[in-house]
Amino acid sequence: MVTNSLVAVLQARDNGGFCAERRMELNALIKPLPCPVGAPQALRLYRVRLDVDWPVDEALLAGLSEDERKRCLRYLRTINQLQFALTRLALRRLLAQETGLAPDALTFELGAHGKPVLSLPGAPVFNVSHSGAYALIAIARGGQVGVDIETVQAMRDVPALAEQTLLPGELELCGHGRDVAAFFQLWTIKEAVLKAWGVGIAQHLSAFEALELTNKELPLRIAAPERWPATRAWALEAPDGYKATLAWAER
Question: Rounded to two decimals, what is the model's pTM?
Answer without folding.
Answer: 0.90
